[in-house]
Protein: GNAT family N-acetyltransferase
Amino acid sequence: MSRHLIRPFREADLPAAAGLLAERHKEHRKRHPLLPADYESERLALVEVTALWESERASGAVALEDGELTGYLLGAPKQSAMWGPNIWVEAAGHAIREPEHIRDLYASAAAKWVDDGRIAQYALVPDDPELLDAWFRLAFGSQHAHAIRPAPTTPPPEYPGLTVRRAVRGDIAVLAQLDLVLPQHQALSPVFSAGEMPTMQEALDDWEESIDDPDYATFVAEYDGRVIGSSIGCALDKSSSHSGLARPDNAGFLGFAAVLPEARGHGAGRALGEAVLQWSADTGYTSVVTDWRVTNLLSSRTWPKLGFEQTFHRLHRLVGY
Ligand SMILES: CC(C)(COP(=O)(O)OP(=O)(O)OC[C@H]1O[C@@H](n2cnc3c(N)ncnc32)[C@H](O)[C@@H]1OP(=O)(O)O)[C@@H](O)C(=O)NCCC(=O)NCCS
Structure:
């Protein structure tokens, strides 16, 4: 019989929770040294857990053994309608000595979440097999991957027949077309994403405005003199989905890539990804981050081939069915 006690999270739990988070992150960095070192410090881990605790309508639970905090779970809703009636456990939202006990913490915290109607649930979980297994036995499944790799040290090879170059104003029409390719693909089976689909006019207007933005490096791949794909690199801090413990220092970001359906599978995606990797190295970034829907059969197979290793799993559960 376990001796641990579960009760709601209180403000006074913050320092001990930060200690557990710093411990978890230290272990995580043994597998992924490129994750930010700072959060191995309890002081910075405390900043992250405190920010979560202070976010609107945050709530959670803690596990105690002989008076010592051995685990915590904190969730808070995101305002965006795209996630449904949601609750999110962010990268700093849980840490636990005994992975199995996350199930007790969830049982306690989720009662309120579901009472509040928050049935679309998301948790960002480090790639720790035991912890993931415990979450899986809470009916969570894998939705999204966060991944990292070092910046390359040698330039990419050339691919016969394929030219990758920086995009220019004359490419705007095809760039706008390619902008629609990703949401169109992700709306299909087996992704079924409800992501926003811009109209062609919105995509064109957006490119007219942003094509010269120096913060974004846009590449196009040409085959037989025709543009068949694009990719975009930028600083990782432009992405709101990678923050805190999931935001490595000095990292570039492969933020977008798409190849026209009829031109896929011939190496253009690899060449476009490698262009962003090389741009990241040339800009002075030490690592490159990307993310993908794990149900996207194309990106989930392409990016690991380019050396990306998964660091966090975004898990998802829809309660009530
Ligand atoms: C993802 C995408 C950009 C990849 O471009 P692509 O031209 O199809 O990919 P490539 O032909 O360059 O293949 C890249 C690597 O992935 C592998 N790969 C691609 N598709 C694969 C498949 N169906 N099964 C197994 N491996 C596959 C290739 O073998 C290759 O690895 P290798 O060079 O080591 O052999 C493209 O498929 C696409 O536009 N998909 C829809 C939009 C999208 O998902 N964008 C990414 C958003 S995160």
Observations:
- The helical segments are 14-31, 42-54, 102-115, 129-136, 172-187, 200-210, 268-283, 299-305.
- The two ends are 31 Å apart (CA to CA).
